[in-house]
Amino acid sequence: MANKVFIDGEVGTTGLQIRERLLRRDDIRLISLPEAQRKDRAARLEAFAQADVSILCLPDAAVHEVAPDLKAMGARVIDASTAHRVDPDWVFGFPEMAAGQRDAIRTAKRVSNPGCWSTCAIALIRPLVAAGLIDPAHPPAISGVSGYTGGGKSMIEEFDSGKVEGSFLYGAAQSHKHLPEIRLHGLLKRAPVFVPSVGQYAQGMAVAVAMDLNRDGIAAAEDALRSAYAGEAFVAVVPASVDQPRVMPQRLNGTNRLELSVHGNPETGAATLVAVLDNLGKGASGAAVQNLNIMLGIEEGRGL
Ligand SMILES: NC(=O)C1=CN([C@@H]2O[C@H](COP(=O)(O)OP(=O)(O)OC[C@H]3O[C@@H](n4cnc5c(N)ncnc54)[C@H](OP(=O)(O)O)[C@@H]3O)[C@@H](O)[C@H]2O)C=CC1
Ligand SMILES: CC(=O)N[C@@H](CCC(=O)OP(=O)(O)O)C(=O)O
């Protein structure tokens, strides 16, 4: 029998992409609300009650409004928002992050999908902290570029209407919403400096972590990443040549993959760890579908 899934916010950027991925499947039956009831509380609660798993693709405030009801009814939920990523009552939905994470997701009632920036940053930093190559009290700086779909409907409208032209840096005041999850799940003792940017293109993300390593450290960093993600279908360490001379943020668009590479100059010790993903794939809807499959006990890569 097909599993029933309700996507709350199914006409938003993330919701639509999850919907597209699930519509192709015969093992999933989507519960959909008519347009007039899309934000009707009673109709949504009824849909949550019917679903085997619901996926919240809402702004944080709308998630906080409904979260206590979901907990009270014991509903199984995946939250795509930032609302619960450092909440101990929710399981962090990054199955490749640590031994045991996938099993925790499999049995969880409440799973919080990671952010797109934090997926990249945590994937690079956590194994290096565990290997003793990053001092958790002095984390390396992070930078990156994302397509404008990462900012949801409002940013898409800004670019599509021509209100914003060209690329920009942001987050300079160091209060980006992904910093708490990077700190917690990156095993850091303080938040790193993070300077993201948005490029004048729709989709795809590249993140760089700036490191100070010697020749042996550069090789050791690559070894640590390789052993952390050995055997994973969606996270891989690729040869540096894939991301040289240019790191192309759009090269994994349409996939659920996250690819990592290690670069550096052994003469100076300056090194760069690089992560590339599709912000709407492994950075959002792909990750949600992967978590859904795990929660339902279905083959993890189905529909991805
Ligand atoms: N875009 C991205 O790359 C990523 C986004 N996310 C997260 O996913 C969530 C959704 O983001 P995104 O898809 O980009 O956002 P969008 O703004 O594109 O979509 C949000 C949707 O939620 C609907 N909505 C708002 N309030 C309510 C409510 N009270 N009840 C029901 N529906 C409501 C909106 O309706 P309306 O259309 O009427 O405005 C809209 O359709 C956010 O929390 C975001 O942080 C996570 C990872 C990546
Ligand atoms: C380009 C852009 O603006 N990106 C968003 C994050 C996208 C993402 O992963 O966000 P959630 O935390 O909403 O899941 C930002 O930096 O705020």
TrEMBL record:
Its EC number is 1.2.1.38. The keyword Cytoplasm applies. It catalyses: N-acetyl-L-glutamate 5-semialdehyde + phosphate + NADP(+) = N-acetyl-L-glutamyl 5-phosphate + NADPH + H(+). Pfam families: Semialdhyde_dh (PF01118), Semialdhyde_dhC_1 (PF22698). It is found in: Cytoplasm. Its main location: cytoplasm. The keyword Amino-acid biosynthesis applies. GO terms for molecular function: N-acetyl-gamma-glutamyl-phosphate reductase activity. Belongs to the NAGSA dehydrogenase family. Type 2 subfamily. This is N-acetyl-gamma-glutamyl-phosphate reductase. It comes from Albidovulum sediminis. The gene is argC.
